[in-house]
Amino acid sequence: MNYFSVAISRYPIQSLVYAFDGEIALGTRVVVDIRNKKHIGYVLGKVNQPAFKVKGIIEIIDKTSFIDEKMMTIAKESSFKYMTPIGEILDLCFPPFKFKGKTLKKESAGKYLSLKISVSDIFKLQFDKNETKIVELLLENGPMEYAYALKNFPKSSIQSLLKKDILAITNFISKQQNVKLSAVQNQIVENILSKPLKPHLINGITGSGKTEIYFEIASHVIKSGKRVLILVPEIILTPQLTMRIRRRFPEIKIGMYHSALGASRKTEWDDVVSGNVDLLLGTRSAVWVPMKNIGLIVVDEEQDESYKQYAMRPYYNAVDVAQRRSELEGAIFILSSATPRIETYHKAINGEIEINKIEERSVGEIPDIKIVDMKASRSQIFSNVLINKIEENSKNGNQTFLFVPKKGFASRIQCANCGYIFKCPDCDVPMVYHKIDGVIKCHYCGHTESVPTICPVCGSSNLKKGGIGTERVEREISKIFPALRIKRMDREEVKDIASVEKTLEGIAKMEFDVVVGTKMITKGLDFPNIGLVGVIDADHSLGMPDFRANERTFQLLSQVSGRAGRGVKGEVVIQTMEPENPIMKAILDQNYDAFYRAEIDRRKMAGYPPFKELILITVEDKSPQEAMKNAQKVKDVISEGSFDILGPAESPIFKLMSKYRYQILLKCDDLDQAIGFLSSRIKVELLGFEPVNSVKIDVQPYAF
What we know:
Shape: globular
Number of domains: 5
């Protein structure tokens, strides 16, 4: 009989010991019993026979282990760093698992649909509605993945076109897109390939050709027999980037991994771990897929906060995990950004990361940026400058992007008589008015109510709608320009990957003149006909209670400005109440270095990253008194630690999902030492209450 240490899936303990009559490889998934319930476990290795009686392993799930020593090392290190049981870390390496149920079979894997007949012959034929859409897509974009076609069009329409000999199924796209790099791009490629073991930052303005550089590196890596992992911050970026990858690499097998895939995520995962994928594209969760033989890891838009998981445990940062994977795999590691994180750029300046700069755009020209002072126009949504620019841009046949920080019609409803603001009963935040649905809604917990007509405090019916949301901008711009085709793009309107793809396709086909959107439209989208970008309420993020507020504002404005002028002459209009703010000047000059110098001095003086490491401890309870009392207990038991303690203080959003929250911020010089101390102190026997469900510890937090 052998004895194994087993980490338990989604269970708040590190590991338990189980017996098994045979050998089990490291990382193998098994089924074990805890309190008469089946749980998935991960074998951490052999142990000596314990002095106490143990249960046996019920079942071995995997015939071969997918977790090798490198992945196990990352799991153990992440378990320590993010103060999370290793079972919860190892859960990330696998798609959602159920004891019952079937997984999808991917018969279309690696297959493509292409046209068999000439364009002139196509115009002689008659097609039904769905057949026409398929043929139009193939004419515009070239061959499409068979799996994509099956997902978006009736199988009968595809089969009909195949029987008529209009379409053919091929194993790869026959026509490769040839891209000629500039001298600067080629120089960066050579530099990265000559220093494969050093982390690299590709830092260039939006539209400077950063993507083509790492595509060229990927080409070299794939030809050498190794695999590539590319991370993007948002699901919205995957369709457009996937199309670019397919055109650039017609003969390789491409995989995709993100939460919106649903049941097919298991199929995609199977393809990767079985070695059938050469290049994997995905969001932050893809960094945990146990892909073998990796030669290159790319983190695109590395500055994006979406790489940090802070809504649920484990609170990991995918950028840091990706870099550690590259070190253990001996893979090239590339960060790409026009506006890198302050911490990243600081490392680059100090030589820890190799910096590769591009100063000019490879496609189009840098857009002209105009800052508009809105202080004299407080009651207006649009300045006269922006209205005139939209009219001029549409006359030129170009598209306009309007960025709005908030969803909904208005960000709050307030009584004009007594000042009462309608807030979510479960969260300490104003409810957002959604005119289209006729409701007010909390964007944190989803609580929804009918639109109020009377103030519950004073009884007045004089209720005013304040703040600006995407719905209101959409309505007002429709009034000003009734002839323009307007599309709203936010999480309420574009809810899943299919609607994202449909909207992006519509933008590419020039079906919309104006796109009104939230942060969804700021990230990495590449359309040639965007002649104008307008920013409504550019000051929104400056007032946030967060030391990264300046950084976020600069990044956001830079990214959204970069959507303009990629194929036509571009202009950007930024509306602000603070035109003299140094951030606005840095945006106007497109000068990241000037912004960095000012920000790094401020960080050093205040003792924030990269000069100090941060750990955020949040204590919550349904009772505000208990939350405060428990927060003080946590402070008391950690008071001897070698770090500065700030708080406890009320969290910026004091009440969230029916729980009151206090936070304690730790500033430390030695992160590992601080984590080790906290792990030994924040325990039920020292606190007198269960910390697992009431204390959140976020190491290197990105949001407060």
